[in-house]
Amino acid sequence: MNDTLKLLESIEKSSGSDLKKVKNLKEFEKLRTQYLGRKSKLTKILRSIQNLPQKDRPSVGKKSNEVRKALEASFLKTQGELEQIQSLNEASDIDVTIPALKKHIGHIHPNTQMIWRIQDIFQLMGFEVFEPYDIDDDYHTFTSLNLPEGHPARDIWDTFWTEEGFIPITHTSSMQNRVMKMRKPPIRAVVIGHTFRNERTDPRHEHTLFQCEGIYVDKGITLSDMIGTLKIFFSKVFEKDVKVKLDPDYFPFVEPGNGMALSCTLCDQKGCRVCKYTGWLEILGCGMIHPFVLREGGIDPDVYSGFAWGFGVDRLVMLREKIEDIRHFHSGDLRFIRQF
Ligand code: PHE
Description:
340 residues, alpha+beta, BirA Bifunctional Protein, domain 2, two-stranded antiparallel ribbon, 11 helices, 18% strand, elongated, binds phenylalanine
């Protein structure tokens, strides 16, 4: 009797390993006959139970039925898998293992690509990213930035006004006050969004453009922190070591106020039309945040200091991608967009 039980166990075991080797339904049928067919060892055992001595019948009967059930289940499972593979192969000529064809499914606008790049770089430096309101009030666009009503410096920006007295923002500086009120120092923030100006368009001017604003407020922040931050940023954007230069400039919300220029990325300072043979490209406005602006943002200027900058994203794209006319960006011309 022990021999019969052992035989049953070995049948179960070898059926498992044989099933794993089966590659198609034909081989599978053969194996099923071998294990479960009329002439199989298992069937023979099942038929012989009635001839066994009375005392052995229950244990052999139980075991052989268990093995039969296990075999039937595993054969059924394998049959299902093989049928699925076969129907996939027959259904069509589709080979599901071939990589997908590269289809023409559109292009990401170069401005968007640049915005993503800017966000990545500043986020790695620990800056948080904000979006401005497209339309904002006078306080956030001007007054909180040390530009009270009637201040002549408001003329720096060719501002649009809505009939209700709101402003399609002329610059992303409109968010400085809100960010300062929302966060406590250390504050590291960039604001990227659309800005609007009452400009006559030409190859270098547009009425709608993207700006990137940045502010950094903490104890002991100096101009050299600003220079270092922006130099690293521009070197990452242009993927080469760029030089930066500060010139004096005037914005009422920074003191001192500066313009920053980059070593020309097109001619590497050999002199070209784009840098007007000076070797330098003026790229942004920046400076140390004016104490009035800090105070207005709820920050004590006797304890904290900070720097701010603002630059045009479109201009950066033009320099990086060597685009000669800013009007391409909004042209909707597919020949332009398909290049990116
Ligand atoms: N907001 C300024 C502009 O549009 C740029 C700027 C931002 C200058 C922050 C200094 C500091 O032109």
